[in-house]
Amino acid sequence: MVNPKICYRPIRPSDFDSLEHIHVKLFPIRYESTFFQDVVNGRDIVSWGAVDSSQPHGQSDQLIGFVTVRIVLAKESEIVDMLGYDSSKSGQTLVYILTLGVVDSYRNHGIASSLIREVIKYASSIPTCRAVYLHVISYNNPAIYLYKKMSFKCIRRLQGFYLINGQQYDSYLFLYYVNGGRAPCSPLELLAAMLSYMRSGFKLVAAKLCKSEDRKMSRWSKCKESHSLVSVTHNKRNLAVEYTGYECV
Ligand SMILES: CC(C)(COP(=O)(O)OP(=O)(O)OC[C@H]1O[C@@H](n2cnc3c(N)ncnc32)[C@H](O)[C@@H]1OP(=O)(O)O)[C@@H](O)C(=O)NCCC(=O)NCCS
């Protein structure tokens, strides 16, 4: 590939097949068809695609990279303790990166960096938004390097967060503050943060206690439950079968 001319645009319904194809190639998990439907139709998900317009007609509008994000309420997120006191009280929001990828032959040309810059610009344009965040599996060095390069801060290591084909993997949680978002710093904020962190710890223990009950649930109800995504704190992502949690790996 010589001198690609990369353009960025929203993902649209005609991208459905290539979007699905790239996800299958890049990620060790299978995403439900509803996820791609939601992305291409912009249902609760905002996305950007990268295309190489220097390619011959017919390929010049084909996706070679993408990023998908969702807006979540700060007070319902697992990083509420990483935000100032106001964020847990009011209608403040966060942008959560669901998936990001660039096809092999187009890597190391700064395409993912540009896609992340689009996300940061978008998050900054939302007055209520205080940060962009994401999970990444602990062995994904190119992605970890990329987020650090883009000034994301690694704020947490979540043990056994992913369960892929029966094997547990840790994840890192990366965060980038926007619009004056910041970590708690006053004694009151630190206390509130500590309490909310402890509360999430209790939720984790409760989730573990419920785990055996979960096994008895039907597959359908499991799928529905995992749709709650970031509103559940520190829940493990079981990626062995169909996956509806949508986090980056
Ligand atoms: C991670 C990914 C999106 C990066 O895409 P990209 O377009 O190549 O990223 P960029 O070109 O903007 O930046 C890549 C940077 O990582 C560096 N890099 C690449 N491989 C690396 C590695 N194994 N270790 C450390 N750094 C690495 C490059 O040198 C480059 O840094 P530089 O700009 O300082 O030279 C791409 O590798 C990918 O799609 N991976 C598979 C899907 C995935 O893991 N997605 C992220 C899930 S959280």
Explain how this protein is built.
This protein is 35% helix and 28% strand. The chain is α/β, with parallel strands linked by helices and 249 residues long. It has one domain (6-243): Aminopeptidase (3-Layer(aba) Sandwich), CATH 3.40.630. The strands form two sheets. An eight-stranded mixed β-sheet has the order 1-3-4-5-6-8-7-9. Strands 2-10 form a two-stranded parallel sheet. It is globular, with a radius of gyration of 18 Å. The two termini are 27 Å apart. The model is unreliable at 214-235 and 238-244 (pLDDT under 50). It binds coenzyme A (COA). Coenzyme A binds next to β5, α4 and α5.
Average pLDDT for all residues: 83
CATH topology title: Aminopeptidase
Question: What is bound: which ligands?
Answer: coenzyme A
Distance between the termini: 27 Å
Major β-sheet strand ordering: 1-3-4-5-6-8-7-9
Helix-strand sequence: EHEHEEHEHEHEEHHEE
Low-confidence stretches: 214-235, 238-244
What share of residues is helical? 25-40%
Describe the global form: globular
Tell me how many strands there are: 10
Highest-level CATH class: Alpha Beta
Sum up the structure in keywords.
about 250 residues; alpha/beta; Aminopeptidase; eight-stranded mixed β-sheet; globular; binds coenzyme A
Quick synopsis:
It holds the Pfam family Acetyltransf_1. The protein has helices at residues 16-26, 33-40, 85-89, 111-125, 141-149, 187-216, 219-226; strands at 6-9, 30-31, 46-52, 63-73, 93-102, 129-137, 153-164, 167-177, 237-238, 242-243.
Write the topology of this structure:
Blueprint: E1 6-9, H1 16-26, E2 30-31, H2 33-40, E3 46-52, E4 63-73, H3 85-89, E5 93-102, H4 111-125, E6 129-137, H5 141-149, E7 153-164, E8 167-177, H6 187-216, H7 219-226, E9 237-238, E10 242-243
Parallel strand pairs: 2-10, 5-6, 7-9
Antiparallel strand pairs: 1-3, 3-4, 4-5, 6-8, 7-8
Bound molecules: coenzyme A.
The site of coenzyme A has 21 residues, from strand 5, helix 4 and helix 5.
